């Protein structure tokens, strides 16, 4: 994952100790580079005063696009059913949390409204928080991995012509073609992150153009040399003869739960509701991320099997294993040759765990 510029763990906010104890939950806050902070956002954050007077808690959910239905599905899996009578109704309730109002908004407007204090919480892609939050210290990432909406913001160039042998950002920067008269033309919808990334990578001669969609067509049309856009499967780039380059990923993104720092700090109802949502998200995400592996293993005793399992690097950090004798009858005697073992494995470690269990004599998975 590319390092996220301007994000750091927020250790000195009073709520952090209680929330950040959870696995995969980080309370992070965009650092505030005061000098480069755009005035419009700073002003928006400053007029956040209305938030203090509201008693109900407002969460913004994507009203349309690919994040909309998956967000509702996730909440449903957490037993938080959003009651929306029809898709054109922009406000809804979640009966399980009585003082919570759901507002359906476009993802970028969710971030904007968190900054103005019109929303307290929101679910959007990290790319949207980073682009429209513009490093504002007013935004707190409450949960950084809701496990959908995975994509990356990445720079892509044509596979052909002058770019044929260019495969990294440093090679792109060193190309003699880019001058102040003829800068590298980049098409992007990310007008904050794009210039920031190029500056950080030393690309001086660059000009940006914006469009709302189908950016991948710009190089073939001759209107841009490169594009900076979201990539998920990579199909759109491939179909348009474009390639990503080494060092060209601006950020890795997925859906996150974001909060207004001020609302969380100043209004106890927001903090309580944030905790409640977080507990439910964590319980659900932990459960779906875990697999139970059962296997048989030959051995002299349960202790010996336990030692063998716990000596393996991918198995030693687990809670357990549960080891039970498997009884059989041979020549009229009840014997234990095998033990049944049960371990709980995070999804990402599943393959390695099974390999390591096999390596120490596990079978019958
Ligand atoms: N190809 C993709 N695969 C997975 N997630 C994506 C992809 N493209 C975007 N996303 C995520 O989904 C979010 C919403 O994208 P979506 O395309 O639905 O809306 P949008 O691009 O903001 O709006 P619109 O396409 O209507 O202009 C993005 O901010 C990003 O986090
Ligand atoms: O790597 P892939 O899986 O091919 O996905 C990447 C494409 O998905 C997004 O477009 P979207 O579908 O949102 O259309 P848009 O350009 O109209 O926003 C993004 O802007 C890319 O064009
Ligand atoms: Mg889109």
From TrEMBL:
Enzyme Commission number(s) of this protein: 2.4.2.17
GO MF term (any one): magnesium ion binding
Top enzyme category: transferase
Protein name, per record: ATP phosphoribosyltransferase
Phylogenetic lineage: Eukaryota, Viridiplantae, Streptophyta, Embryophyta, Tracheophyta
Cross-referenced PANTHER family: ATP PHOSPHORIBOSYLTRANSFERASE, ATP PHOSPHORIBOSYLTRANSFERASE ATP-PRTASE
Keyword rRNA-binding among record annotations: no
Keywords: Amino-acid biosynthesis, Glycosyltransferase, Histidine biosynthesis, Transferase
Domain Histidine biosynthesis HisG C-terminal: 289-364
